[in-house]
Structures are given as C-alpha cells and as structure tokens.
Amino acid sequence: YESFFYGVELDGRINYEKVREIAHIVKPKLIVCGASAYARIIDFSKFREIADEVGAYLFADIAHIAGLVVAGEHPSPFPHAHVVSSTTHKTLRGPRGGII
Questions:
Q1: What is the pTM of this model?
Q2: What is the pLDDT of residues 36-56, one digit of tens each?
Q3: In the prediction, which pLDDT does 88 show?
Q4: Between the CA atoms of 18, 53, 37 and 6, what dihedral angle is there, to the nearest 10 degrees?
Q5: Using CA atoms, how far apart are residues 23 and 45, in angstroms rounded to an integer?
Q6: Helix axis angle, 44-54 relative to 16-26, nearest 10°?
Q7: Cα gap 1→82, rounded to integer Å
Q8: CA 3 to CA 93: how far, in whole Å?
Q9: Would you kindly state where each structural domain of the chain is located, as residue ranges?
Q10: Which CATH topology does 16-99 take?
C-alpha cells in the first residue's frame, strides 16, 4: 500500500479542499481522520463527503476526543464514518484497551 499525507495549513487547520484535491488525484480506498493534538473541530461530514466522491471508506480515530464526543462537546463521527476506533484509557479514563 501507499499512504498520502494531507496535513494542516500554517494556521493549524485542516484544508478540506486540499484533502479533496489529493483524494481525487490518488483515489484512496481508505481515508483516515483523527489526531492526537488537533485543537479544532474535525468536520467528519466533510471527510465523508470527500470519501464518497472517490469511493473510499472513512475511518475516524477518536482516541483523543472520545470523552468530548460522549459529552456532546465535539461532533460525533458515527453518522459519517464507516469505522470508528478509540481507546478506553485516554479521555474515557477506563482500563487500557481499544474499541472499534
């Protein structure tokens, strides 16, 4: 497999149009979103829109924001992502483990 990086702009924000451009060029089978240190809201609906345009699955890693999602402080990826993963021990404060 080959991976491609979409990164963030100088202001620290994801440029969804750049993600769209890259996706249309490389035609990925899977788009991964989620971050360990992204201080902004992740727009899962935009990621899903892009994934649908290129026929890709959307995978959201919410390990670092799961507590915020559960508390309703961050939008949930569940209506948008095909697969969601998290840990049980980071923001959920449970025993070490993972969930898909």
A1: 0.91
A2: 888 899 999 999 999 999 999
A3: 85
A4: -40
A5: 15
A6: 20
A7: 20
A8: 31
A9: 16-99
A10: Aspartate Aminotransferase; domain 2 (3.40.640)
